[in-house]
Structure formats: C-alpha cells, structure tokens
Amino acid sequence: MENTVPDVKILSEFRAILGPKGYTDEVEMIAPWLTDWRGRFTGAAPALLSPANTDEVAAVVKLAAKHRISLVPQGGNSGMVAGATPDKSGEQVILSLRRMNKITVMDAEDGLICCDAGVILQNLHEAAAAVGRRFPLTLGGKGSATVGGLISTNAGGTQVLRHGTMRMLVAGLEAVLPDGSIYNAMAPLKKDNRGYDLKQLLIGAEGTVGIVTQAVLHTVPALIDRCVAWAGVESPAQAYDLLLFMQRHGRDRLEGFEILPQRALNAVTTHIAGTRPPLDTAHRWHALMEFVQDEPGQIPPNELATQLLEKAMHENLLGNATIASSDAQAEAFWKIRDSIAEAERAAGPALQHDISVPVSAMARFIEDESPVIESTYPGTKTLAFGHLGDGNIHFHVKAPDGVDVTSWYAGDGKAITSHVYNRVRAYGGSLSAEHGIGQAKIDEFERLADPARLAALRAIKNALDPLGIMNPGKLVPLA
Amino acid sequence: MENTVPDVKILSEFRAILGPKGYTDEVEMIAPWLTDWRGRFTGAAPALLSPANTDEVAAVVKLAAKHRISLVPQGGNSGMVAGATPDKSGEQVILSLRRMNKITVMDAEDGLICCDAGVILQNLHEAAAAVGRRFPLTLGGKGSATVGGLISTNAGGTQVLRHGTMRMLVAGLEAVLPDGSIYNAMAPLKKDNRGYDLKQLLIGAEGTVGIVTQAVLHTVPALIDRCVAWAGVESPAQAYDLLLFMQRHGRDRLEGFEILPQRALNAVTTHIAGTRPPLDTAHRWHALMEFVQDEPGQIPPNELATQLLEKAMHENLLGNATIASSDAQAEAFWKIRDSIAEAERAAGPALQHDISVPVSAMARFIEDESPVIESTYPGTKTLAFGHLGDGNIHFHVKAPDGVDVTSWYAGDGKAITSHVYNRVRAYGGSLSAEHGIGQAKIDEFERLADPARLAALRAIKNALDPLGIMNPGKLVPLA
C-alpha cells in the first residue's frame, strides 16, 4: 500500500479548509521546517498546513484520510530524534500546530491550565507564574517547544526527579484521531476506569495514532526559594549513595540531582567563556543538586542544604561541597551543567546516547561500560552526565582525535552505538529515555525491541491508523 | 466467529501443562469462583486452571489460542463489576493467578517490591511494613484482592488523594499477551520513551488484552503518626472549600478526605452496632480527614490538624470539628465511613453508582442532581458519599419503601441509573471512577461512550486479541 502524492487539486482542497493564513506551498515559507533541530535530517514537503483550531485539524485529517495523504505533525520543531521532520519523498505534508496557541487558566485554585497544542513552553511558564503557580517541566528548548510536542514525546528535563515526565502532568487531553474524529478527554478526572487509557496511549506516541490538539495540565505551587549546591564525589557509586541520602532526608525538597565527570567540567571551563569550577579541590565526579521551598514555614532551602551536606560529608558521602551564595552563582552552577553539550561540540565530534537503566544500576553501568568502550576503541573518550536521579544519563562517546569524521561515524561510530544499546538492553534499560524514537532511532529500536512488544506496537499502530497516514516512518518500525 | 467449547481432550492438554495442583474440573472446587463478589452474576466453567508461574501461564494461553478457548483471568474474585466471572455458556475457562504469590523486596532503599500477580494486598502491606515501608493503596477487600486484579482494574480506595490509583504505583510489569508471548517490562525505568506505553495499556484493561503475571511496585515511607479528624459542614460546596483549604495548607500531609451526608450517618448509627456520631451538634454534611506524618521532624499530625481546623473554623469553612483522641477513636471514625454500604443494605434496596466528575464540579453535581432524582421518582432517597478529593462519589439511590424490589430494579431503577449516567456524561465525568466496567456496566458504557473513543478501544482489542479469547464480554463492548 502506497500513500498518495498530493497534487494541485488536493492541495487546493486543503487551502479551501484553512484559508490563506493556514496554508502555504511557498518553498521559502516551508524551508525552515524541513530540517530537524540537530540538523541531521532534511526532508521535503509540498505544503505547510497551519489550522487555527481543532475543527480545522479534524477537517484536514479527514481530507488526508480520503486521499491517503501522509501528515507530519509539528510543534516547535525542537525534538531530538527528527520525529517532526518529513521524509525526502515530497509526499508528506507538514501539519503545524503553532497557530493554535491559546492558554486558559481554568481554575487557579485547582492549579489546572488549559492549553492549545501550539502553546510554547515559555509562555505556559509565564501564564502559570501570573496566577502564582508553576509548570514544573522545563528544558533547553523552552522558547520553541510546544505543549503538543512535549506531550507527544513525553518530554523530560531536569525537574523529573520530583515532578515526573510530561505524562504525569497531563490531566486532560483532546486529539484528532486518524479518521478525523475528535477524541475529547479534556475533563480533568482524577479517577476514570472506562477501559484502556487512550490518553496514556497518545502521550509519547509522536503523532503516529492521533494529533494532540489541546490539553489540561497540572501546575504546582510557585517557588518561594531555592538553593543550588555542588559536591565533589569519587565515583558514580558515591554519587548514587549521596542521592539516596538526599532523597531520604530531603524528600520532595530535592528537585534535581545531576552528575558530571571531571572531564565534562574541564571541557566546559576550557571552551565556555565565563565558567569556572565551583570547588577549588579536585574530584573525579561532581553532583549538582537543587533544593526548593514552595510551602511557607518550611526550613529555608539554604539552611536545609547546609545541614544535609554537612551530614553527608560526615558520613563520607562526598569529598567537598559548596552552596551557591546568590542567584547569579546558582545560575553559574546550572550553566556548567547546561553547557556540557556545547563544550563537547567545541572539543570535537562525539556520539550521543540518551539512555536509561534502573536508577540503582546506573552507577555500575557507567563504571563498567565506559572502560570497555575506551579500550575496545582506542582514542575514544566516554562522557556520562545528566539525570542520575532518574536513571537517565546522556552517554556520549568522543571520536579519537584526528579521525575522518564521516567514515568514523559510519564505521566505529555505528558499532559503538550498537554496543552501547546492546549493553543498555542487558541492563533492562531503554535506548530512549526522554528523546523518543522518531526517525533517528527507529532502526536500532527495531533491532533491539522485544518481539512481543514490537508486535503489539505494530498491531496498535495498524489498528488505529490503518491507512498509515499519521507521521509514517516514525516511532513504530513497520514490517 | 465463535469460540470453542473445551472438550475432554482439550481439558486434558491443560491438565498436562499444569499438573494436578494446577488443574481441576471438579464441580465443587470450581463453584466458589463462579459468582461475583456482589452476588449479581453467576457463570459456569468446565475447569479452573491455576498455573504456578509465568511460563505455565504462557503455555496455557498458547494452548487456548490454538484451540480458541476463552480464558477468564481471576485473582481474589473481589471485583465490583463481575469482571472476573465467566459467562453462563460453560465455554469459558477460569485462569486463577492465586497460586502465584511470591513477594520479593528488591531494594528496600529504593522502596521497590516485586510481586507475583496472585499476591494478596494484605500480604503486600505486611511485606512492605517488614522493611520499614508502606504500600499506600488499601481497600475493603484487602484480605482477598490480588496485585494482578488491582492492576487490571486500576484500583482506587481511600488513599488516592495523595498517592494516586494503582496506575501510579506500578514501576514495572510482566504480562502474557493473547498469543502466549511474554511481555517483560519489569525493569523499573523512571524514563522510557520507546513508543506506546504498553504497561499503561495493561493497567485497567481487565485482562482483555493480556494477563498480568508479575509487577514491581512503588512503596512509600512507613507512617510515623496519623490524625483522623471529623468536621460538620453545611453542604458539599462548603466541604469542597474545606478540602481546598486543607490541601493548600496541609499539602501532602492530607492523605484522605471523605464526605457523607447526615442521612448516611443516621443510617450507620441506626443499623451498625457500636457506632455513634463523632459530633454532638447537627450538620447537613460531614467530612472525614486523615492527616499523616511519615517524615521525622514534621509537626505532629494532631497538632497540624488542630491548627488547621481552628483556622478553617475561623474562616467559616466548617460548623464544628473534632479530632480522634486515640487510635481506637480514629478507627471508630473510619468505621462510620466504611459501614455506609452495609448500613444502607440494612435500610433497604438501593442502586449504586461509582462515578467521577472533575473535582471542582462534584459539589454542584450532588447539590443539583439529587433533588431532581428525588422529585422525579417520588419516594427515592439519594445518598452521595466518598472520595470528594478525587471527584469520585458513590452516588446511591434508595428505592421507595414498600416497592416490589425486582420490578423496581427493572423499571424505575434502570431509568434512574441511565439518568445518573446521562448527567455524569453531561459533566464530562465517568460512569466508572474506580470499579471498572466488567460485565456489570458494559451496556451503559456502550450506550454512553464517545463513538471516537469506543471505536479506538474496539480497534485495540481486536488488534491485540484477534481470536477474542481474553476475558470476552468484559470492558470493551464489541459490535
């Protein structure tokens, strides 16, 4: 079964639904949306559709189903796995949700906010703050990432430790299904046992079984204060013990716990202007912690962090530690963490793996697997950093100095990536912790997926999207 | 397509897989498992299969698929909607998970516990307590309800306000899919973005797309102390304001918030020996609250409750309040709440509706809908009580005194139930908040379900269980 290339007549039908504001086939208007955020995938599209509301999305999908036109839903185009990029065939039409950007605070007391799919994360943050609340999910692309994309990729970020991924923050949802029908589950029900939870199915589905058009989102109370701390530790294992200690004593006052090796700190202080090591002592590994206060009467985060770090030092859970003495210093600590990828790029080409294993196994994974890779592929350097508290590490492998980059990526690079994912599977882990599958990981996903699981995913995809028009080529490797 | 009646030869193949301990076709051994908990549905089954482990479950399912034998998975047989009861055809075989009852504490520090599907909730509570932890979900049937059943019905209970339903407590899961393949997602990954979340699909699926065989469950720290408080209020609306106040100031120290009308209190103190009103003042409505401490150094729950109740009284959010002065008194307060159904039975026949609407709409629902029913059907009395904090009320309607019960159930009773569910739908709510659909609600579910949603559920059911052998007749109304 092949899907149809949209011809001029079909395109004119889309234009008739959407009007001039919602339709373009001008090459220059479409071009910026054809390449993924990381610049590794570039596709083609005969038109860019920008519906103004759910009814228009439904009409577009109905028409697409009628003519068997493939649709590629797109929000901020800031995904990491090219899940919103069309293929090169020129058959796939981009369906942008960006014009749908209304935010409605439903009930500030309940903390629920209703958003169109195209609402940009930064704007959601501001809308929540305006009513004394906080939307706790945040990530680097917040200036462009949209609510629909965040839901469709079950986005993560640095606040997951306490607040969970996007899945935990969705109270209600509306989507257009592959036949153009509208699935409305916007009522924020805390309990609902009417069968399979379609909402859960649509979260993280990358637009392959429906297009998220609206959502009701949970918020949390606004922060009163925070404290960012930095600790030097010996190893990932010691960092894990420190994490458990902080969770046991800090409970939900601990909102973030990130780790990085000395090698990452060196790369940042070498390549990123204005950064310097938070500690004047040398350590093999480092942990960045954020403690928060969002309830009046709680012990201030600074005081809590001081107490806990002193106690942790006394229990030999860290080598040295410091607390940011100002908001500027807190931002400087976070800047080190957030600049690792940029610093690494400046240092040379590297493979990037967004992986997860059970939290309790992550330290062992890093300690056991890094030397194997470095000795099997001489000259490579591993760099594991990120969300230890979520069992989610960005496991990067830097190419040896002086190699021909293109041939290295195609040869050893490919082998290393397969090796990393093989090991992740041996730990029961995931080759995609927070970025999704998209186009970038679909082959490796197919290679490594449990056959029972893969068969179930294919069955669901084919059952809900029998024409195969919803973001084909993404997420689910079809036979 | 009709499924097969298992003949002697097929039954002997099941026996060969399971051995004498795992197989019976003796009428007296099967009889206790043919009627649902509420005694409203009785079926027939030619055999009761009791596998000892996942491999045996897989072999049973494979054999069932080969011969097209329908399987009815069953745990403690304590569900409320006859989801684990075979139909009357005599074609359906019961697959009991009760022999699979191992509990393994994986990592006390992580708080994760691994359970076979047949583990009884009470035993899970004890296993968690033995390592200084708590499994926070609890309900009346805890002495018989099993982990597999709790997952397959996404069970609720009185602690959902703080800890969520079963869905929130499952970290990992294993299931046998309808073709007999084993889906293993036991690794407790905090982040995993590899496509549709099958774990979420299996939770609440009532065994219609797979049989849950094992799970890894979250626990929470053991309680240090608790305080149970009782308040008299004017109305559900005032109770809702009180709830918001307690959530705002008590945060996650508030673990339960239940409401009941004076009529329910009267029924309990009249019909249940040893109960008496907690307050000596008269109130139209009552709220039962539980405050907990599970972190050292927190203000004791008694003190917290006293402060908050005084403040709430000062703000006119309640009429009068009292705090249980001993654990025995705390139990006495809870006994009132837990005896409502029993007291009501003693008072006469009634319809029971387990419904949810958005939390903020529940007070209005109760206040607007109750008088309509009582005036439309003279002599009926409504009784709304339960989990206000979850937007989940048990909305009962007592039959007029002296009616012929059988004909009332078939006539006005049926009309009233349809009316209640119609109104629930108008509020965007659910006709099954925590009990599920099973056999008991499948017709009303089909009548009221959003067609887009129903079509999706059918497509998923047919795709994953094309032979229709997994608990047929439950949850998903097939065309």
Automatic annotation (TrEMBL), chains A, B:
CC cofactor: FAD
Keyword Flavoprotein: yes
UniProt xrefs under InterPro entries: FAD-bd_oxidored_4_C, FAD-bd_PCMH, FAD-bd_PCMH-like_sf, FAD-bd_PCMH_sub1, FAD-bd_PCMH_sub2, FAD-linked_Oxase-like_C, FAD-oxidored/transferase_4, Oxid_FAD_bind_N
GO terms, molecular function: catalytic activity; FAD binding
Gene3D superfamilies assigned to the protein according to its UniProt record, in alphabetical order: 3.30.465.10, 3.30.70.2190, 3.30.70.2740, Uridine Diphospho-n-acetylenolpyruvylglucosamine Reductase, domain 2, Vanillyl-alcohol Oxidase, Chain A, domain 4
Family per record: Belongs to the FAD-binding oxidoreductase/transferase type 4 family.
Name this protein carries in UniProt: FAD-binding oxidoreductase
Organism: Sphingorhabdus wooponensis
